[in-house]
Amino acid sequence: MSTPTPATAATPWAAPVVGLDTEIEVLAAAWVQPYDQALHLMRARDWLVHLNPAATTEMRVAAMTHDIERMFPGGPKLDHATTPWDSPFYLYPHSLRSAEAVGVWLGGLGPVAAQVGLGEVRRLVGLHEVGGLRGADDVQAGDSLSFLETLAGLTRDWVASGACSRDKGAEKLVYMAERIRLPAARELADAWLQWALDQLPADAAEVVG
Fold first, then answer.
1. Residue 191 to residues 10, 72, 139, 175, 184: CA-CA distances in angstroms?
2. Is there a contact between 106 and 113 (Cβ–Cβ < 8 Å)?
3. Cβ–Cβ under 8 Å, residues 175 and 86
């Protein structure tokens, strides 16, 4: 079970953990569990349900699986130092490969897969980076808020290791917040963005120097 970041003077309020209500969600949680960023996926679902308590099962499953292609070798590569964060040549292959992986997984579940519309889950996963109609903006917002909450440390590590500059790391965090379309989510993201920016170290080159 994922654990949200506790609300303290140092960290903003975080969405509560939402129980797994359906068999398909339980199976999805088990499928993504080996992924090293599984917490990010689970928290994306928690944020999604906070923003939209009526989120469909398709939306919830999409939030839980949206980055899953990274669990498998052979995916698109991103150079953190030079690739624009909004590069369609990375974002679209990443999103569509995840949608394909989710489709294969659902297709192998047998009758239980009938709990969701396979095509709708794939559509939502395919749109998770850019948002869109009928719940896609909600899934994207959940992804963005979860990134700021759970992956600020990863962004910090990119800078500390020299994988990208501090400015490039900050640009990623700002991008994740500013791409959100839902006004309520943008308000929540403001506090998380500032918190995440405060975690960034100086450039690795400056530390070495």
1. 11, 33, 19, 14, 12
2. yes
3. yes
Q: What is the 3-state secondary structure (H, E, C) of the chain?
A: CCCCCCCCCCCCCCCCCCCCCCHHHHHHHHHHCCCCCHHHHHHHHHHHHHHCCCCCHHHHHHHHHCCHHHHCCCCCCCCCCCCCCCCHHHHHHHHHHHHHHHHHHHHCCHHHHHHCCHHHHHHHHHCCCCCCCCCHHHHHHHHHHHHHHHCHHHHHHHHHHCCCCHHHHHHHHHHHHHCCCCHHHHHHHHHHHHHHHHHCCCCHHHHHC
Which pair of structure tokens corresponds to residue 175?
A: 């991008």
- Cα separation values, 138 from 32, 56, 98, 125, 181, Å: 20, 11, 18, 12, 8
Given the structure tokens 């996926």, which residue do they identify? 41
Low-confidence ranges of the chain (pLDDT < 70): 1-9, 204-209
Distance CA 31, CA 38 (A): 10
Residue with tokens 């794939």: 122
Q: How far apart are CA 63 and CA 53, in angstroms?
A: 14
Distance CA 98, CA 65 (A): 8
pTM, rounded to two decimals: 0.94
Q: What is the pLDDT of residue 141?
A: 98
Q: How far apart are CA 130 and CA 185, in angstroms?
A: 15
Question: Tokens for 102?
Answer: 């989710």
Instruction: Retrieve residue 201's tokens.
Output: 């170290």
